[in-house]
Every structure is written in C-alpha cells, then in structure tokens.
C-alpha cells in the first residue's frame, strides 16, 4: 500500500512538474508536425517558433512521430485544448484528411505546411515544390554533362510523398532531356544505406557519370562510396540543403544540393496564421522557393 | 487465495495511478475531464488496447508477439484495397480478420511445432509481413475512395451507438470476451498453466501446442480488428502503419501488471495500462509538454510501474 502511494505521488508530481510556462495569455496557434526526428522538420518547427515569438503568439508544437494515427490524436487533443489556427505538417496527404475534417468541424482554420491534405478545407498551403526540385536536379545534371549522361538515382523511403514527388520531377527532366537512368534503387533517405546501395550499384555500373539522390543524407553516403571506389569524376546532386551537404558542396565533393528552406516554410505558416487571426485571408497557395546550391 | 489478493492489489495500484493521473490533469486543464475529451482518449486508446489484449494472452503463455505492427499494417492494407475496389466492406472486414488469424496461426505453428523461441519467430514474422505489406501496397498508402461502401466502412471508426463511438464499443467487447475466456473457460486456465509451468502442463496432458497456436491466432485476429478501426478512422491504410505498436502494446501489458515471465496477470490490468498511456499522451498534449520530453515521461512512467510491480511480485 505504501508503494502504491509512492507511485501515485510520483505520477502526480510528473504531471504538475511538466505544466511548464503557459501562464501568459497570448493568442494560441498550434503546430502539429509530422516528425521531430528529422532535422528538416525540426528546422521548420524552429522557423515557426521564432516567427511566433517575434509576432507575440503562443505556439504549441505537437509531434506526430510519422504516424497518421498519432497525428489524428494530436489534432483531436489540440482541438480540445483550443487554438485559433491549426498549422499542420501532414505525415501523409491522404491519411491527414480526417484530422483536417475534425478541425473543420470544430471551426478551426487549417494551414498545411510542406505536404498538402487530400480532404477537408484548407485555408492555405505552404510548401516548396518538390516536383520542380527533382526536375531542377535533372536539368542541372544535363547542363553539366549533356544529354547522354548515365545517371544513378537513389530513392528515398518508398511511398513517401517527398520521394514520389522528387522522383516524378526527376523523371520529367529525363523525359524532356533523354538522359539514361542506368539504375534506381531506394536507400530510405539514410546515409549508411546510401553508401551501401551506392557501393553495390558502382560494382554493377562502373560507367556511371552522375548520381541524383533524393535527399542529402543519401547523397553524402554515395559520396563516401564513390570516393572509396577511387572515382573522382562522378557528379553527385543531393536534395534538402542540409549543413553537411552544403559543406560537401563547398569542398567539391558534391556538385549541388537542391535546397528547400524549411525555416521559411514554418515562418510563412505563422505569418499566414496571423493574417487569419486578424480577419484577413492569406493566399491559398504560398510557394516557398527552392534554391540550387553549388560551389 | 492469497495469490488472488496479491494480484488484486497489483491491479488496484495501476487503477490508483490512472485515477491520480486523471485528477491531476483535470485540475490543471479544465478541458480535460469533459465527455468529449474522454471519448477522444478512449477512441485513441482503442487500437493499442485491442492489440494489447492479444499481447496479454501471448505474454501469459510466456511468449511475445513482435509481429503485431506488421500484421496490423497488412490486414489494414488488404481491407482498404478491397473497399477501394468498390467491394462490400463486409467482405473487406472478413478478409482482413481471416488474414490476421491466419498469420497468427502461422506464427503459432512455427513456435509450437518448430520449437522456435517466440521472440525469434515473431521477429521473423514481423519482417516478412512488413515486406509483404510493402509489396502489396507498392509502398504507397491505399485510400478507401469515395464510394458508398467506403462510407459504410467508415462507420467502424466514426459510427455511434447510443452516442458512444464504435471504436470504444469494439474495445469494450474485446475486453469482455477476453476477460470471459481467461476467467471462465478451460482455454483460459490452460493459458495461465502454460505460462506458469510449461512442462508440468504438458505432463498433465494438456495440449500445450494447441494453446500456443490459439493465442497467436487470437493476437493476429485482434491486430486485424484494431487495423479496421485505424483504417476507418484515417480513411486510408499506410504501408508504414503500426511501426512500434508492439512496444506500445507490451508497455500497456506491463503497466497493467502482467508478468513478462508469463502465468500471472489480468486482462483488466491491460485495459488500465492502455488507458494510462492514452491519458498520459492526451494529458501531456493538453498541458503543452514539449514533444521530446513526452517520450522521456512515458518511458519514466513505464519504468516506475515495472520496478514497483517487480518488488511487489517478489515480496
């Protein structure tokens, strides 16, 4: 019995201790983010947090851990807690639908970030154009090495919208320019897998001239594999513009990275939310430009 | 008799923790203890709770089922694709449940007849079924579509009977049936016996293999039932669905006071364990606890519960 009191007391203490600083009454905005286990979305969150601080809003951030069920639960929770605007970075465009509908039903305006929602009413969608980015990567390779170039494509996690869209854009460029994709394999957006897959592909395709990786982590893994195979003239293009990749570009190990600007996506999300709170209507589509980072 | 009292006390302890958690968060946030929010939490909990029921039966036989998340994903995907092709949702549900039970049957046979450790067998099953899910879905989510049948299917996730959401009703039925089986049927007694002392059970003439195969079948079936709820609630099936659900289910079982060594535990404890996790998630969201700290708190609560249970079990 004594122990049960101890247990209950500790659970209660945890609850009270974690109440945190929600004392000052500011207008509340919620951000439900697909995952905080990936630097890209952490940067997106940081951009939103900074902008909210600057404009004087309380921003509540919830992590969906890449799970649409958790995402729906987060949205249901935040609707109970109350928020003026819901910023949501969906885990998946289809699966987020019912979460958006729930917000619609509760009368809370929804803004989607980075990924769109297939269902429900969304006031504004803010994203960089992954398809255009994939196309830009292909065009960049052709610009450097010509139409006949032999390219290997490292794909991200199969089925994710980022992988699909970047791949689609890259394919568009291939169809327009007619270059050869001699191999395409998934390496799950992961650096170590990028290296392993690239090592295997290099053995099978020693004549490769360029690599397009659907994110920078895989690109950096591919760079490792290429260098340890003693090939210096393979052109590597990554995607995302992470710090490591930009360094690699500066050192000449990578040719380019197609950089999204996640902090700008987050910041523009909060700006659009402010417009809604002030009774104005933000643009339905707010594109955030991509930039090709080269040496 | 004394054993019974001890078990009862362990259950009570989880219940007290749950009640304190509810009272604690209620005092900090006025929106927490509303019917609307309670329904929210129960619906959110239903998926994990139903999977955890199967996990409880498996753990009671001193086994483990690591394949639950994969089975959940594949059965959900199969059901969603059937509805996506404008077929009767009844067929989709039956197909999903049958598939879940079949996979569970497979795991059970491998464990019982192949004499493989449950950990290894279900780990292998987890990989194979996850792979099968990726093959089946081609890595893309499967939507339910907009047909009348899709709306019929969504009744599982959104329907209400007497104002109570369907997922909650399904969860309640699953717990009542499982509780009845464990408490009042021969199978229930055999499950405890297998987990308590397998060789003694075998020597006393009970078909241990049969008991094992049945519990893994039930586990697979319950994964499929949970998958129907989630697919219906999301209107789509994800190839990556259910990742990590085995851990959530094990956490609920352990929080509910069931021994990982098998033979000791109650189904009501699992319900309370799942509810503690559900209320904790919701409470932390309502209190605005930082996302990263939420994981630490969850881990801490589970650790605490296990440590205390361990001590009381030995005392």
From TrEMBL, chain A:
Protein's cellular compartments: Cell envelope
Pfam families: Peripla_BP_4
CDD domains tied to this protein: PBP1_ribose_binding
SUPFAM superfamilies: Periplasmic binding protein-like I
Signal peptide (from-to): 1-25
Gene3D superfamilies: 3.40.50.2300
Residue ranges occupied by any Periplasmic binding protein domain in the UniProt entry: 29-280
Keyword entries, A-Z: Signal
NCBIfam families listed in its UniProt record: PRK10653.1
Family of this protein: Belongs to the bacterial solute-binding protein 2 family.
Protein's recorded name: Ribose ABC transporter substrate-binding protein RbsB
Biological source species: Ignatzschineria rhizosphaerae
UniProtKB/TrEMBL annotation, chain B:
Swiss-Prot/TrEMBL keywords: Cell inner membrane, Cell membrane, Membrane, Transmembrane, Transmembrane helix, Transport
Subcellular location(s) of the protein: Cell inner membrane
InterPro entries: ABC_transp_permease
Keyword Membrane: yes
Bilayer topology annotation: Multi-pass membrane protein
Main location: membrane
NCBIfam families, alphabetized: PRK09512.1
Record-stated family: Belongs to the binding-protein-dependent transport system permease family. AraH/RbsC subfamily.
Protein name per Swiss-Prot or TrEMBL: Ribose ABC transporter permease
Organism: Ignatzschineria rhizosphaerae
